[in-house]
C-alpha cells in the first residue's frame, strides 16, 4: 500500500475551494471515487481522515470544501454562520457541490464514470441535493443528514440513494422523513432509508454530547451505519 494525498484547488463562481484527495498509489487506476461532504463545521481534519480510511479500501476519496478556503467553525454560532447561506440558497448549495464533482472528475486518479458521494449532517443535505441536480454520480449516502426538499426545480434523479437516519433526530423529524420518502418514490428513485431507534443527530461523532441540540453519539448506530455504507458503495461502484 502506498497511501498518497494532496490538496486539490478548485473554484466556484470566484470562490476558491480546497479539497483533500487520498488514494492508494499501489492500486491500478483510475479508481472508483467517493466524495465526502462535511458537516456544518467545514472540512475539518476528521473528514480528511475519513478520506484516508476509504483510500485504504481501494477508493480515491475526495473530502470537498463547501465553504471555500477550507474555512471551519468550532462554536455553534460559527458553524451556523457558515452553513446558513447554503441552507437558505439551495441553488448555491447545488452549484457548489457540483463544482466539487467536476474537480474530482478531472483528477487522473479518479474514474469519472464511477463516483459516489456521502455526507454527514449538513453534508447529507448536500449530497441529496447533488442527486436532485441530476449529477452524474452513481449513488449518494446521507448520514444523519437534513432531509428538507430544496423548494426549487430539480432534475431526474439517476443516482441510487441511501439515507442513514436516527429515528429521534430533531433536525430531521418524522414529517421530513415522510416527505423525503414520498419525493423519492414519486421520482422513481432506487432509494433506501435505514432508521435507527433510540438514536439522535450526529450519531457517528464520538464528540457529540449536546442534549439541548439533540446531538448524541451512538456507537451501535455508528457501527451498523458503517456496514450499510460500505455495502452500498460496493454495490454502486463495482
Structure description:
It is built from six helices and ten strands; from the N terminus they run βββαβααβαββαβββα. The chain has helices at residues 45-56, 76-88, 90-105, 122-132, 174-186, 219-237, and strands at residues 3-12, 15-24, 31-37, 60-63, 110-120, 139-143, 160-166, 191-196, 209-210, 215-216. Strands 1-2-4-3-5-6-7-8 form an eight-stranded mixed sheet, sandwiched between helices. A two-stranded antiparallel ribbon has the order 9-10. It is globular, with a radius of gyration of 16 Å.
Total number of strands: 10
Q: Helix amount, in percent?
A: 25-40%
Instruction: Provide the low-confidence segments as ranges.
Output: none
Radius of gyration: 16 Å
Topology:
Blueprint: E1 3-12, E2 15-24, E3 31-37, H1 45-56, E4 60-63, H2 76-88, H3 90-105, E5 110-120, H4 122-132, E6 139-143, E7 160-166, H5 174-186, E8 191-196, E9 209-210, E10 215-216, H6 219-237
Parallel strand pairs: 3-4, 3-5, 5-6, 6-7, 7-8
Antiparallel strand pairs: 1-2, 2-4, 9-10
Helix pairs in contact: 2-3, 3-4
Q: Could you list some keywords that capture this structure?
A:
35% helix; two-stranded antiparallel sheet; eight-stranded mixed beta sheet; 6 helices; 238 residues; globular; alpha/beta
Summarize the structure.
This protein is an alpha/beta fold and 238 residues long.
Amino acid at each position: 500500500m502506498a497511501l498518497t494525498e494532496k490538496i486539490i484547488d478548485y473554484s466556484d463562481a470566484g470562490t476558491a475551494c480546497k479539497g483533500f484527495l487520498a488514494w492508494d498509489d499501489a492500486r491500478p487506476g483510475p479508481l472508483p471515487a467517493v466524495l465526502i461532504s462535511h458537516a456544518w463545521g467545514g472540512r475539518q481534519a476528521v473528514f480528511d481522515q475519513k478520506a484516508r480510511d476509504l483510500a485504504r479500501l481501494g477508493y480515491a476519496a475526495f473530502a470537498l470544501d463547501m465553504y471555500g478556503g477550507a474555512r471551519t467553525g468550532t462554536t455553534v454560532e460559527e458553524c451556523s454562520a457558515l452553513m446558513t447561506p447554503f441552507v437558505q440558497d439551495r441553488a448555491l448549495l447545488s452549484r457548489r457541490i457540483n463544482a466539487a464533482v467536476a474537480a474530482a472528475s478531472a483528477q487522473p486518479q479518479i474514474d469519472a464514470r464511477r463516483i459516489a458521494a456521502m455526507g454527514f449532517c449538513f453534508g447529507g443535505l448536500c449530497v441529496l441535493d447533488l442527486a436532485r441536480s441530476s449529477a452524474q454520480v452513481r449513488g449518494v449516502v446521507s448520514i444523519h443528514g437534513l432531509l428538507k426538499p430544496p423548494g426549487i426545480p430539480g432534475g431526474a434523479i439517476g443516482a441510487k440513494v441511501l439515507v442513514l437516519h436516527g429515528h429521534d433526530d430533531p433536525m430531521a423529524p418524522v414529517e421530513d422523513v415522510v416527505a423525503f420518502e414520498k419525493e423519492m418514490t414519486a421520482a422513481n428513485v432506487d432509494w433506501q432509508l435505514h432508521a435507527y431507534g433510540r438514536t439522535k443527530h450526529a450519531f457517528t461523532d464520538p464528540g457529540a454530547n449536546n442534549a439541548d441540540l439533540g446531538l448524541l453519539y451512538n456507537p451501535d448506530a455508528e457501527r451498523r451505519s458503517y456496514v450499510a455504507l460500505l455495502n452500498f458503495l460496493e454495490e454502486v461502484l463495482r
